[in-house]
């Protein structure tokens, strides 16, 4: 048979290979900066993704090639203000999302985060946005819950004075993640939220959500669904799928109840005029819960580590002075605290990864480069916060003072990408900032934090887990020293 003829097979492969090479070298993306190999294959990028190294790999390409870099035959990364504005802000909500976000469907349903087009996202956002507005977050019923949970975190810290405390902790107690878990579930469906800072059973729920080593499994599912279906059982031995039965029980049970507080997201979604069934509500709540635990917990962990370094001790002292001199003042009235948090999120964005979008029909010109339709384009916060040194000079330096300078203020705010940008930016921004600032006030009005002698800079390198980041060593050991001389806030 002709199909089995070796000469025919070889000739066919040669022709197909030649056609593929021609398509690559004639692609409009050939003119973009980037490694030559990325014209022909995405396997280098995939390799780094499977090794939880995508963010640093792309950043290394930006350092070499500049703010625009081709990272795969049909994918381009931008680290410029022009790229951020066009991809995420044009038309109000930017470009549509790629199928990458299918990985974040919950119970087979699309949440606000996993909707792909702008229209579907806008419809869901109209339901949810009210509960994440700053006016709602600052209500006493919401804010008092955050303060109460911060107080519980301080109680646990007090038991570690004189020794070291692991504010990250793997497989035992993740104190910052307990705090973030209790805070977000309070906002989602109080009084049915968690109390993991005091209840070991609730802490098990938190661990199940955050002990996620499913990166490789989910990437196989994304890149080759057929292969994933065929070898899923075998793959799960080496790369576990994400399974959260305890969290499912918590969320689904809460969403079937009535009587949630008026400030909560669940109370809003249960309005019958929105037409959401309890599984729609559960999907949104689980999605928001997972995001709220990892992002806030990780961001606080990296920031407290940075503040504890000897070279940052002057920053910590100045922060303590502002807090102590303004006892009882609202956290949004403390400019240096705001600068410290902004700088922490600049250096260690909770979601440092790329946020992929499709170029719309007809193609677009982005940062001076013509990009064909259906090309995947993205920005990643880690690079956006570092590449343009006219906006962020000495980008590797932890320097909160940069946020207090009037010069360049507008460009800094425009290029700040920790909560993404545009109409599809992080809806939970105000909740995250309230939780972070409340906890930092409570900690640094009472303690000085110092790094444990066993910790190294390598331990705290970012491990890129798809949509969250963790310390590579999965630990963050700090020592807490009580402030002396009656300085402590009561």
Automatic annotation (TrEMBL):
It comes from Anthostomella pinea. GO terms for molecular function: heme binding; iron ion binding; monooxygenase activity; oxidoreductase activity, acting on paired donors, with incorporation or reduction of molecular oxygen. It comes from the Eukaryota. Residues 1-17 form the signal peptide. SUPFAM superfamilies: Cytochrome P450. This is Uu.00g003610.m01.CDS01. Its cofactor is heme. Heme binds at residue 426. InterPro entries: Cyt_P450 (IPR001128), Cyt_P450_E_grp-I (IPR002401), Cyt_P450_sf (IPR036396), Cytochrome_P450_monoxygenase (IPR050121). Keywords: Heme, Iron, Metal-binding, Signal. It holds the Pfam family p450.
